[in-house]
């Protein structure tokens, strides 16, 4: 019986792929991204060399992760911060709620972070009667819409400016034809009140720097700085793979992230936080915690090839380049991480048996591998995931029968040559349409096979 998650994926993919308005929005937004990224590449004298250096550094980190994690903890603790180890999402959720309850924190501001979606953090906070505000404009839009982020980097990519104006008209009684500048000004004014009265802030981390115990945060709106400045408690949630060896490595990673993420030479605000404020600093949190989340990342480390996906710096370039993502969009994946990188890691994070279909949601064109700033061979890792699916027999019984039949035919050429072309075409039409989809043009068998024609020509 077909996996219900898989069936939902097929249904949603069908709906999204043939929705012209949806395709129009994605094509417009990603088209603008492509233009900006092309200009951003001009800052690199040798982009390929920069990508190789970044890939080598992340590879070094992944293969010595235990060493770098301990180094980060020691250095961060020396500056007054506290590290909390969370083996899974339940542990992380429990620790966050413990810290908030201990501080009697009722109002929480959040900087954009995908790992909070992994933990379903907003739902947890609202369930525990906390006020939580997303402070990134795109995240704020999807929050008040009651939706999830659509894209790793651009949460509201699926919405047009008209959609957003309509939303703010319904939620805040703004004019239905509000301009983007008016909406931005309204959100800025509204959120600044929340920054001032917030009891705690929660952020992710773009990078964790091992040799200094620092947390690097990059943003374009200034909301991250404001989130950190006012509340008394700063909680950072980061996957254990976010480490880089040295502060000097930011010189390489920050421009790569900016260029591949938004086409900028460098992101507007790049903050390096070393811990809670000292007695000589006028603002900043009195307490700072870093929650290091495993949540099945160490299980992914067990795979010699797929572990390379942990090098990802969450720039979103592979999503923008992927023809499947550009067709079906972000919600179809039903996972926090979508697109090619999500198709590699989500089956390992959420369960290979239930989510292995994501590894088949690819044309294997290799565009994702081509654009990756840390040279993750994503289309190859998808094949490794598929192999693992077959080895564990997570594919359907019917599909295994079909593949075994195909294997037998390929090993016995006469089985292909002997049937007449008409019979073969009938079989392909009857079974192929159902299996491969009604919109595909199925191949037609020639009256004479290549082998027959070759024999006739050689004989002549």
Characterize the structure shown.
The chain starts with a helix and ends with a helix. It contains 23 helices and ten strands. It has 460 residues and is α/β, with parallel strands linked by helices. A hairpin with a 4-residue loop joins β5 (207-209) and β6 (214-219). Helix content is 53%, strand content 10%. α2 runs antiparallel to α12 (250-262) and α16 (339-350) runs parallel beside α19. It has three domains: 4-10 and 313-391, no CATH class; 61-295, Rossmann fold; 397-459, no CATH class. The mean pLDDT is 93.
What's the CATH superfamily of the largest domain, by name?
A: NagB/RpiA/CoA transferase-like
Question: How many individual β-strands?
Answer: 10
- Summed over residues and divided by their number, the pLDDT gives a mean of 93
The percentage of residues in β strands lies in 5-15%
Q: Per the principal axes of the C-alpha atoms, what is the gross shape?
A: globular
Main beta sheet: 6 strands, parallel
CATH class of the largest domain: Alpha Beta
Cα(first) to Cα(last) distance is 54 Å
Radius of gyration: 25 Å
């Amino acid at each position: 019986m077909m996996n219900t998650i898989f069936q939902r994926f097929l249904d949603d993919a069908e709906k999204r792929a043939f929705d012209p308005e949806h395709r129009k929005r994605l094509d417009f937004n990603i088209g603008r991204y492509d233009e900006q990224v092309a200009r951003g590449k001009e800052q690199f004298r040798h982009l390929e060399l920069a990508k190789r250096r970044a890939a080598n550094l992340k590879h070094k980190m992944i293969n010595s992760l235990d060493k770098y994690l301990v180094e980060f903890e020691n250095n961060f603790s020396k500056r007054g911060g506290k590290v909390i180890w969370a083996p899974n999402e339940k542990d992380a959720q429990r620790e966050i709620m413990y810290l908030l309850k201990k501080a009697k924190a009722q109002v929480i501001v959040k900087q954009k972070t995908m790992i909070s979606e992994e933990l379903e953090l907003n739902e947890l906070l609202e369930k525990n009667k906390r006020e939580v505000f997303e402070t990134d404009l795109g995240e704020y839009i999807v929050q008040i819409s009651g939706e999830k982020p659509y894209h790793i980097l651009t949460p509201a990519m699926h919405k047009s400016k008209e959609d957003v104006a309509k939303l703010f008209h319904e939620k805040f009684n703004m004019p239905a034809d509000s301009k983007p500048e008016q909406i931005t000004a309204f959100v800025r004014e509204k959120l600044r009140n929340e920054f001032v009265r917030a009891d705690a802030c929660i952020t992710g981390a773009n990078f964790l720097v091992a040799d200094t115990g620092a947390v690097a945060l990059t943003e374009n709106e200034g909301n991250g700085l404001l989130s950190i400045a006012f509340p008394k408690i700063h909680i950072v949630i980061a996957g254990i793979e976010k480490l880089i060896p040295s502060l000097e490595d930011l010189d390489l990673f920050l421009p790569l992230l900016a260029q591949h993420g938004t086409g900028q030479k460098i992101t507007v605000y790049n903050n390096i936080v070393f811990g809670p404020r000292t007695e000589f600093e006028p603002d900043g949190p009195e307490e700072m915690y870093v929650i290091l989340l495993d949540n099945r990342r160490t299980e992914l480390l067990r795979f010699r090839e797929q572990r390379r996906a942990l090098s990802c710096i969450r720039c979103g370039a592979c999503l923008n380049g992927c023809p499947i993502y550009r067709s079906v969009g972000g919600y179809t994946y039903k996972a926090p991480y979508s697109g090619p990188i999500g198709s590699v890691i989500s089956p390992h994070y959420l369960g290979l048996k239930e989510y292995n279909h994501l590894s088949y949601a690819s044309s294997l064109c290799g565009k994702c591998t081509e654009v990756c700033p840390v040279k993750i061979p994503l289309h190859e890792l998808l094949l490794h995931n598929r192999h693992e699916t077959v080895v564990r027999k997570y594919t359907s019984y019917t599909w295994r029968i079909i593949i075994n039949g195909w294997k037998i035919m390929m090993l016995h050429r006469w089985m292909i040559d002997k049937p007449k072309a008409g019979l073969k075409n009938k079989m392909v039409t009857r079974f192929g349409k159902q299996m491969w989809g009604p919109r595909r043009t199925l191949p037609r068998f020639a009256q004479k096979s290549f082998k027959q024609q070759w024999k006739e020509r050689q004989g002549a």
